[in-house]
Design goal:
alpha/beta, six-stranded parallel beta sheet
């Protein structure tokens, strides 16, 4: 957490007269959008307006959250996004640890005159003016709740804040399944429910929103799932042509990698997907127990993340990438 002196300084920055901006990472997920909106609604409850800027668009299943559609999408409104960042007095950087993680917004953030406040749970954060980094906490949304607590403003948590923070914690813990989900996490969830978050409504709005294209793609993935390394590693994949054939929409493949972990004996799951427009392969890794996919991804696939959840990238073709992956996992002890 921020030091008491830092909290006092941050408090002096959070005034209605200052222009406050909230940024999150490229390809925003539930935790990124939930933490951004949760913080925005918290500041609003204090009488302070803030703008959310995201590098690119986010899935439709996250757009039910209050005021989500007011977020400025950098890839669609570059000049508006640039002006907002350039003129900001305070910039909150949520759910990312480096300007390189926010696409076209990275250079603008680096050169902005604003005070930069990082709240993030990924490993190896870079330097910001104020840093609250904790890799043990399972979601940035939980960190936003802790921030509200230490600011002495827990009483300000309302239904809008509660819904957004609940969504981010739920999605980043895989429905409270990952081992990083702690007793503190569950206590916060209970508090959010008491403040108005409806678990049934949030779960349905976020996860029970399948499109036909998503189900077709899931059927393809599951039909050819492959298990290697003596049944300890699952491989899932999709080609660009398959994405096009079934009318892929942003968010359609969210959570596909988790199906590999549902197989008995599997400790690591990897999902490989060709980018729709450029010649590279996106990779998602998930694992159980002490299998560190963060280090694995950093070592072999130019990525990183958390011990049990990470991402990576390959400039090889999809078949070559999968063969490289198979060779690398054979070198690792699982």
């Amino acid at each position: 957490m921020f030091t008491p002196a830092e909290l006092l300084e941050i408090n002096t920055l959070l005034t209605p007269d200052n222009k406050i901006v909230i940024l999150t990472h490229y390809n925003p997920d539930g935790d990124a959008i939930g933490s951004s909106l949760g913080l925005k609604h918290y500041l609003k409850a204090k009488g302070i307006e803030a703008e959310i800027v995201v590098p690119n668009d986010f899935p439709k299943f996250l757009k039910w959250m209050p005021e989500s559609k007011k977020a400025i999408i950098g890839e669609y409104k570059r000049k508006v996004a640039f002006d907002i960042i350039n003129e900001a007095d305070v910039i909150f950087c949520l759910d990312f640890n480096s300007p390189s993680r926010i696409g076209i917004l990275g250079d603008w953030l680096t050169h902005a005159k604003a005070k930069k406040i990082l709240i993030d749970h990924h490993q190896q954060p870079e330097k910001f003016d104020f840093v609250y980094s904790d890799t043990v906490i399972p979601a940035t949304c939980q960190m936003i709740y802790h921030f509200i607590e230490v600011m002495g403003d827990e009483k300000l948590v309302n239904k809008d804040i509660a819904e957004c923070l609940y969504t981010g914690i739920m999605t980043d813990t895989g429905g409270f399944r990952f081992r990083s989900t702690s007793a503190a996490t569950h206590r916060i969830i209970a508090n959010l429910i008491e403040k108005g978050a409806d678990p049934s409504f949030i779960t349905s709005s976020t996860w029970d929103t399948n499109t036909v294209s998503r189900l077709h793609l899931l059927a393809l993935v599951l039909a050819r799932i492959e298990v290697v390394k003596d049944g300890k590693v699952a491989i899932l994949s999709l080609t660009r042509n398959e994405l096009k054939e079934y009318g892929f929409q942003k968010g359609d493949t969210e959570g596909f990698v988790n199906y590999g972990l549902s197989i008995m004996g599997v400790k690591m799951s990897a999902f490989f997907m060709e980018d729709l427009y450029e010649d590279f392969v996106k990779i998602s890794f998930r694992s159980k127990d002490d299998m560190d996919v963060n280090q694995f991804s950093r070592k072999y696939f130019n990525g990183g993340g958390h011990i049990n959840a990470a991402g990576g990238k390959s400039n090889q073709s999809l078949p070559e990438t999968i063969e490289t992956f198979k060779a690398r996992v054979e070198e690792e002890s699982l």
